[in-house]
Amino acid sequence: MRSTAGGRDRVALVAGASGGIGAATVRALLDAGMRVVLAAPQDALLEALARAVEPAGERALVVPTDITKREEVDALVARALVRFGRIDLLANAAGVGASPSFCESSDEELERVLAVNLLGAARMMHAVLPIMKAQRSGAIVNVGSVAGEAGVLGIYSASKFGLRGLSDSVRREVRSFNISVTLVEPGFVRTPMNPASMKNLPGPEVVADAIVAALGRPRRAHIVPARYRLPVFLVKTFPGFTDLVFGDARIQRRLNRDRVTGAEEGS
């Protein structure tokens, strides 16, 4: 891990800290010497993570937070400022999965996915940006998905397409304040959100490394692992062929074979 990307005077806020990607990101940022605010719903996962970061002492602050509720987001940011006085990095790693089939999704599922994956990230950005603008510096890293480049996973893809558009828009709006906005787009990585039957997946550390790297080298978008870059390029270059392939009933059945809906998780 690049220790030069951190620094003991820098403060990171990680939303979705108890998920697979979120927890890996917390570890990476602490290893880089940063002070870290851990935000996630109050549950057994967050309690376990809080115990795991106890050796970091005052450098780690755990704040149970539901990012679908603005009052809890504002309270989280306020506590971070009281404790550390600034926020240099926001890592939006919170996310929930959904059925690949839009037709089979419930109305509750539609609302939940958008509330966490898109509106939750938007609220976090909206809450920290006034602080970063006052500092005239900061970095935001949103964890999207390759599903935000290829529309094949129903409402989940829609939420990640939305996050991609929001990242682009905000990046342009705050560029003059020396604030960067990077979108990290993972393919399948080894987290509880993905089917256990998927073997040999890379660990969530590949996403955490990209988040830490974005501090020193901001990028518009960063697809990880690298093997997904060519498929994404082909999907965007040949949309008609993509329609033909993913419009096949057999492909749709395969997409829906392993249905994973979910608890809070880095997506």
CATH topology: Rossmann fold
**Per DSSP, what share of the residues sits in E-state strands of 2 or more residues?**
5-15%
Helix content: 40-55%
| Structural class by helix and strand composition | alpha/beta
Oligomeric category: single chain
Distance between the termini: 22 Å
Pattern of helices and strands: EHEHEHEHEHEHEHHH
Short structural description:
The protein is of the alpha/beta class and 267 residues long. Helix content is 46%, strand content 14%.
Description:
The protein is about 45% helix and about 15% strand. The chain has a single domain, classed as NAD(P)-binding Rossmann-like Domain (Rossmann fold), CATH 3.40.50.720. Strands 3-2-1-4-5-6-7 form a seven-stranded parallel sheet, sandwiched between helices. Helix 1 packs across helix 6 (about 205-215) and helix 3 (about 70-85) runs parallel beside helix 4. It is an alpha/beta fold. It is built from nine helices and seven strands. Helix 4 (about 105-135) links the parallel strand 4 (about 90) and strand 5.
